[in-house]
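Lecture 7, part 2: worked example. A protein chain together with 2-acetamido-2-deoxy-beta-D-glucopyranose.
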Amino acid sequence: MLIHHVPVVAALLAATGVAALPKKTQQSMGKHRVTSIELGPRPYYLVDNMEEGWLKDRLDSSASRTRGGARLQFPEETVESIMAGTRMGAGIQECDVAFTKDRQFVCRHDQCDLHTTTNIVATELGAKCTKPFAPAANGTAASAKCCTSDLTLAEFKTLCGKMDGFNASATTPEAFLHGTPGWRTDLYATCGTVLAHKEFIALVDGLGLDFTPELKAPAVPMPFEGGDYTFEAYAQQLVDEYRGAGIDFARVYPQSFQFAAVQYWLRREPEFARQAVLLDESGDKGGLEAAVANLTLYKDAGVNIVAPPLPYLVTLDDKTGEIVPSSYAREAKRLGLKIITWSLERSGPIAAIHKAGQKGSPDYYYSTFFNATTRDGDIYQLVDVLARQVGVMGIFSDWSATVTYYANCMGFLS
Ligand SMILES: *[C@@H]1O[C@H](CO)[C@@H](O)[C@H](O)[C@H]1NC(C)=O
Ligand SMILES: *[C@@H]1O[C@H](CO)[C@@H](O)[C@H](O)[C@H]1NC(C)=O
Ligand SMILES: *[C@@H]1O[C@H](CO)[C@@H](O)[C@H](O)[C@H]1NC(C)=O
Ligand SMILES: *[C@@H]1O[C@H](CO)[C@@H](O)[C@H](O)[C@H]1NC(C)=O
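Predicted complex, written out as structure tokens:
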């Protein structure tokens, strides 16, 4: 059993690419700077892999205008993944925000994923985990549960970021660290530099890019440790960190799956909430029609941007079998809600996804349209429908160059 995520960087259609590389970034910004955008080989691979047609011709014709470079895959929420995403033209960078024992903010995909995204179980800090490493034995999988709230910020900073995954048959903590699927790589997972949220702000500000912090659902009862650290105090702290750093809120797209967090910002920090992004996975449990019905509630509450996963936004046309906007996409548009979606290129090679879907176990991100995606190049059919028919303002992508290339080519970078 393996679980995995890769670096999430938001490549917003309106804010990516060579043309959008901010002037500030082109000057020396100290240690972390990017002077040119490099898309690497993957977009060309995808275009070559497309079915013949006008979209392929159009994307092909841009090939000579874009500079090459090489990017592979990096441990998520680290300095290295942010730099890789920046080099591939991402305009907005994500930090998933979770708190430490001393109530400092750090970037982690989940409050309790340190056992799969860092080397913690193989360090002395493993003893501080909510559930320390337990080896596989007698048919029971190896396990551990390690949360940012188990550690102080100083302790967290000693960890190395790695590719998300674990080895369920591990009998030693070292073996537990291995679980990266074959289509990812450990080549750059030598010791990813983990980040405090304040460091993330300084890094991304220095690069001249925008921010999309996600306030994660607390994985411990709030108030934390029975004190004064309530959910509201947690939500306020996010606002305070941007205000404290002197960041213009126009550069911040705060997100949360927690409607309560967005409601709090709308009520107490309306300027911060103007670009708040309500992440919506309510259709997973309630069904897509219920999620569609709920859009009115969000609109009436003052939400301007919703962010559902890819499968909510598209469906297959009954007659042609082609990818088309879903009822969710049409209703969000009708209400005037802006849409961001997640996450492109989080899944493995498409042929395997197509096959798994036909066998009745579809990949989450392709669950509503796997029949129309049979090869890797079909990713651009999906991106094209999202950009031109659904009208998304951005796409969270685990490989930003794919979206940057499309946006450059199709003129989304004015
Ligand atoms: C596994 O089973 C054996 C035999 O029943 C027992 O002696 C041993 O303690 C078990 N190990 C663990 C880790 O539960
Ligand atoms: C997983 O753990 C088992 C037991 O420690 C080990 O034999 C195996 O090589 C490990 N797999 C990987 C990919 O490290
Ligand atoms: C609608 O939104 C509310 C607030 O987030 C949530 O509690 C409820 O579960 C949602 N309903 C459905 C059917 O998704
Ligand atoms: C996918 O296509 C198969 C036939 O190839 C069909 O039986 C199935 O209903 C389709 N599934 C979806 C979700 O469209």
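The chain has a mean pLDDT of 89. The radius of gyration is 21 Å. Keep this in mind for problem set question 3.
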